Amino acid sequence: MTAIAVPPLPSLAALRWQVRRLATGLGLSGMVGLGVLILSAAYGVMTLMPLSRELADLRQTAMQAPAVASFASSKVEPADQLRALPQTFPRRIELLKWLDRLHQAATDNQLQIDLGDYKLASANPSIQTFQLNFPVKATYAQLRGFLAQALSDNPSLSLDQISFRRQNVNDALLDAQVSMTLFLRAE
């Protein structure tokens, strides 16, 4: 058996000399570029990698949700999914409960919804829509918080249209007109 000769590790002084030689050859702009490259790699490892794991976890959680899981299954035909869709909506007799959730979202975000146009309509025999059109006077953050909470708390609620107007550039409050639709089972 022959022995393999392993070259000796360079000394610390030799490594310092090679780093200085590299720095001299790269110059200032090369060193800045190398520094940016190292910082970008560190940012990717420390920030983007955990975020990609979190995104994968959120996708897994979303696929396990009952409504999503039933419609995400590839074994179910689209026509069957369409027939089953109204069963995911709240029943018409639960309308007041869902409106309470909407008003609770407004209260939580310091909004008041008093005046508005509310109309119950039939989209087809199994689905009814409750259309809500109302004005809101609030800051942008309050309005955004209200919409996020209302849509999160009411999965069968859709934001149809929103318009903003500010009387003066310095005004903190917006005049907004909000149009939403709550989808209901016609039972």
From TrEMBL:
- The entry's protein name is Transmembrane protein
> Where does this protein come from, organism-wise?
Ferriphaselus amnicola
What highest taxon heads this organism's lineage? Bacteria
- The portions of this protein that span the membrane are 22-45
Name the keywords, alphabetized: Membrane, Transmembrane, Transmembrane helix
Q: Gene3D superfamilies of this UniProt entry?
A: 3.30.70.60
